């Protein structure tokens, strides 16, 4: 009997590792395709050879790949992984499958910071220059986080308090964004709307490096507490009975989620559904075990945003298609199908 159970367990674990392999290959292929697709179409072979041996290829192709498309494609990979992991952990600590960084008002706060910089040129850090919008977006994300932490500390970091505080901040910052849009000139309004839609057009090697460094620092910090986060899904009382400081764990995760989200949206704008769709798919495939849930969410987030980037380029071949619209076009049908499949269940 024990042998049979062990074989079943090993088969399940093997299947989970196979998912990692399948989706890692899919991400790599999507990454190459994202670079290949554009106003000047390239073959995947040309892209691959240019990346591996740039000195053996046409200089124009090198410029297109290395200076323009590669940073954007890498940004899609990193931002997708960051937002998906952030969404997965928000859903875990709040025990709500519909939660995301948007639920906590983090993305809306970033949008307000960016809009404030566009309309009034007001920055929280003086002399930020050309990066004023990104700096403001990052700082206001942490302003939202500070309010959540303050209220959560007073109310012992319960998930209900966090959700209510986050939703309140979400509506507050959305109202403030609407006010700034009303006060903005036509040119300023165009900049605000374009930023809120999301775009990889401002991606560069420096922004890729910043997001990558933050990602490889934050994700291991979450992975260290993987068993605690898995136990948290059993409920607060059971988690506490296992010796877990639930309030401290929630605050730590909120800090990590805020950093991941802020580093992503401050450079590419607010992008919806990346923190919702990939974690749902990962949960279906691996369950709630955070050892597998976190990395698979990251892979699926990268794949999701890369496919959205490819789709946007195909739809608007000669121009810039807002990435937030592309993710919404994919995300909305997914959630409608999810609601239809789970119509008898309660979220």
TrEMBL record:
Record membrane topology:
Multi-pass membrane protein
Membrane-traversing stretches: 20-45, 73-90, 102-125, 131-151, 163-184, 204-224, 253-277, 292-312, 319-341
Keywords, sorted A to Z: Cell membrane, Membrane, Transmembrane, Transmembrane helix, Transport
What protein name is recorded for this chain? Answer: Cobalamin import system permease protein BtuC
Q: Which InterPro entries match?
A: ABC_BtuC-like, ABC_transptr_permease_BtuC
Q: Which family does it belong to?
A: Belongs to the binding-protein-dependent transport system permease family. FecCD subfamily.
Q: What does the UniProt record say this protein does?
A: Required for corrinoid utilization. Probably part of the ABC transporter complex BtuCDF involved in cobalamin (vitamin B12) import. Probably involved in the translocation of the substrate across the membrane.
* Single GO MF annotation: transmembrane transporter activity
GO CC aspect terms = plasma membrane
Q: List localization entries.
A: Cell membrane
What subunit structure does UniProt give?
The complex is composed of two ATP-binding proteins (BtuD), two transmembrane proteins (BtuC) and a solute-binding protein (BtuF).
Which top-rank group of organisms is this from? Archaea
What Gene3D superfamilies does the record point to?
ABC transporter involved in vitamin B12 uptake, BtuC
What GO biological process terms are annotated to this protein in UniProt? siderophore-iron import into cell
